[in-house]
């Protein structure tokens, strides 16, 4: 294996462990997983339109569906051997795996704590079975009562391969600028657990217009809704003062920050020119800017599929804060073998080479060096233990 | 005056001519302009929350408002002398003025044609009164019947200083990917009238969360909602095939394309990986990519307030497709004299210098050279006349 500094690390890569698949198979409302007789892979149904199609099949009013609803849950989603095969095929030394959206957002309050514990234990065991190759971001039981949430942080901070948590944008139901989340942010920061912020809900579907559902596939919600959701969530945290309140908070933002690097200048201008904020004295010398947040408290993944965006992300946060990722197992190749090379890997890798030069020091940092340093991807890691 | 190539041109700068102010003063529902006794500037009320505050004052239930609702319509909005003063203060040689949002979106169908004609005539006369200093983007009566809309294009194509139209994202009510708009795009393209695409509606307010209205001023809708709205509108046009259907269409996108340069890579990846689009054969060799649209059919203004975003815009579209703008009279300085220097000018100008080098060839192109060439900002311009 290559030296630490030239390791390739994938920090944006998802797994659905068997316990999560079973949970989704037991559900009657979306999100759910359904098996069909004679069809190899079960289907994962998450969108309302897909649920309607499923109802027609279940009720017998659609007896010969041309396309099964949802997306196939292939072995890429649930098999550790397949994950390791993907890594080997693409020269990835280490993966920091995480549960995919929508995590445990739909789980009832009373069972969320136990469910999170079983999922996080499953991730922990997966990592232990491939020592040195896998670390993970844990899942929080956000629908559970506060004491359960605190206990969950207590559990994950003791897990040897856990380096943070994956978090959606809904928080406890009111978004990430909810003041009730500040103690959670403090506990995570005190235990050096990085938040991997990931979108799921996108934007209200009306913004895509009347032609989207029939004609544009999933392009608009995925290509625009996802990064815009992330941007809005971080901007709300910024305006709420979360980054000031918890200076040790560290967040890794999916999809290179959504659109934050591109819009940071406009955010600063709108803050500085807002009569309401200026009158309230929230704008003035010494206040933390969004640029400071980008350079001091935020890391960005490099899942952006072009050097144009990647350069802007590097300009905004610094080459030492970008981390390569693939988004595997999403976006499988449609015109080639799923066991071969994925464009989601090659496009993002090419963007790094084009932006920084192939095999340059910067490219090596983005491809893995930063992740090893920032997330402490060493076997011998000692947990923070009793700091929180 | 300096040579053509080093002229400074502001292509994003708004005016409310007296006819438009009178129209807004006559209205009882938002958007409206209201005068208050003893208060110098009338107030422009556009948001539902501002309308509620206005109702309380009008009904007498709020007799001592601490803040008048809406924003002051200073002379910066309606006075040509003030516009010229702003230009002189900031070294702007030429301004391409346009009506500000929401244009004529609220005007009844039967009067929209006449209203547009009077507004466009007023702009035309303003430009003629300061020859060589002013050109304009006209306003279309989008709520009018189709024949009125066609007649309006016939009117504006004969106006000496008109170089295009300013357009919001609602189109005829169904967005800019509405197939009914294709003939309008064709007529504009045939007359070399550039579309200046500008946001107004932002995103549904629920995305800003429960704290936004009270605590975050107008930052989120303006800083994020505006550019996201623009991005969504262009992506919908792209997916609808508008740029293929009208290859001569030219669009100038406000705020450096919203977030399009940053998200273009993700858009391409989502298109290439969309099972629905691939099955329909809409994805394959030879299709026009969003990168081609950015480099061949789109221009971007440089109203982005930072070199990080500006560089990405240049990387995406080319240094010959960026055009400086100020967004005057919006975002006035809050801590200094409105007759002096505006940060909206200096921040955007500094971004150009930092991205391209002060006084470099590229900087001169972005600061004005591109606009002079692309929009034909010459006194002696011959109109296309009977081309359409």
From TrEMBL, chains A, B:
The keyword Lyase applies. One of its GO terms (molecular function) is hydrolase activity. Keywords: Decarboxylase, Lyase. GO terms for cellular component: cytosol. One of its GO terms (biological process) is secondary metabolic process. Residues 115-377 form the Amidohydrolase-related domain. InterPro entries: ACMSD (IPR032465), Amidohydro-rel (IPR006680), Metal_Hydrolase (IPR032466). Belongs to the metallo-dependent hydrolases superfamily. This is Putative uracil-5-carboxylate decarboxylase. It comes from Rosellinia necatrix (White root-rot fungus).
